[in-house]
Specification:
By secondary structure, the protein is of the alpha/beta class. The chain folds into 2 domains: 124 residues, Rhodanese-like domain (Oxidized Rhodanese, domain 1, 3-Layer(aba) Sandwich), CATH 3.40.250.10; 128 residues, Oxidized Rhodanese, domain 1, CATH 3.40.250. It contains 10 helices and 11 strands. A hairpin with a 6-residue loop joins strand 10 and strand 11. The longest helix has 12 residues. The N and C termini lie far apart (46 Å).
Length: 287
């Protein structure tokens, strides 16, 4: 079974929720530094939407040498999804506050876990309310599901694969330019980027309204970074969250890429790994 188109808009979601096979809606609002997604969900959410926490349910606790958002334990993720009412074959729609950054991480994780029918509400909660969609504070109590998690349905990259990929394909760094260049690093202990990586901030994938740019516009943006059909693409960010947003943008554009889940926060745990600073891919090497 081929996966469906990764995005849907509010009118389509409203029709599906009123239909014979409504999707399970997962609220994955999250932002580095807050506000707290669970608290925001409690203040108002889509009717029936279940909150899933990116830090604790779509990731597992960090071990030495790993990035800030390691992939979840499959058994724990299966328990979370079953508690949310996800059955085998159930369509799932994920959303966040607006720009689909954390929703994209949920989309990628669920696809990696073997779920096929997973889509992102384009524009998130902001789009829902802009279309007059209702909110509720009612706590959803779905009947337990029976979904089976089978990890590995999407490929991943490890740190050892990045140098070769940067030479033979395109390695994208989805972080802000100041973090890529090393001018600023508010989160991780080392500033800079993986040598050979090209900076393509994920913020450029969406419009001012928070919805994804048109496929042709995204293809042009990726082409300017050297990405096109047949090109092997790897993507990383700080911890594997915003990089998933770039992977979603690639899919919308009809392209594909592979996530380095550990991302920069894992790369810098090993002081022998090289670091580049400056505005270009190779920058000024700093080891």
């Amino acid at each position: 079974m081929a996966p469906p188109a990764p995005l849907l808009d509010v009118p389509h979601l409203q029709r599906e929720l009123a239909g014979d096979r409504p999707p399970v809606v997962l609220d994955v609002r999250w932002s580095l530094g807050g506000p707290d997604g669970a608290a925001e969900h409690a203040r108002g959410h889509l009717p029936g939407a279940v909150f899933v926490d990116l830090d604790t349910q779509l990731s597992r606790p960090r071990r030495p040498g790993e990035g800030r958002h390691p992939l979840p334990d499959p058994a724990a993720l299966q328990e979370v999804l079953r508690a949310a009412g996800v059955h085998r074959g159930t369509p799932v729609v994920v959303h966040d506050a607006a720009t689909s950054t954390s929703a994209a991480r949920a989309w990628w994780v669920l696809r990696w876990a073997g779920l096929v029918d997973v889509r992102v509400l384009d524009g998130g909660l902001a789009a829902w309310t802009a279309h007059g969609g209702p909110l509720t504070t009612d706590v959803p109590r779905p009947a337990p599901g029976d979904v089976v998690v089978r990890p590995g349905a999407l490929p991943v990259l490890d740190a050892a694969a990045l140098p070769a990929l940067a030479r033979t394909g395109v390695l994208l760094d989805a972080r802000a330019p100041e973090r890529y260049s090393g001018r600023s690093e508010p989160v991780d202990p080392v500033a800079g980027h993986v040598p050979g990586a090209r900076n393509l901030p994920t913020t450029g994938h969406v419009t001012a309204a928070g919805t994804f740019a048109a496929p042709a516009e995204l293809r042009a943006r990726f082409a300017a970074a050297g990405v096109g059909p047949g090109v092997e693409v790897g993507v990383y960010c700080g911890s594997g969250v915003t990089a998933a947003h770039t992977l979603l943008a690639l899919e919308v554009a009809g392209l594909s890429g592979t996530l380095y889940p550990g991302s920069w926060s894992e790369w810098v745990t090993d002081p022998t790994r090289p670091v580049a600073t400056g505005p270009g891919p190779d920058g000024d090497p700093a080891v």
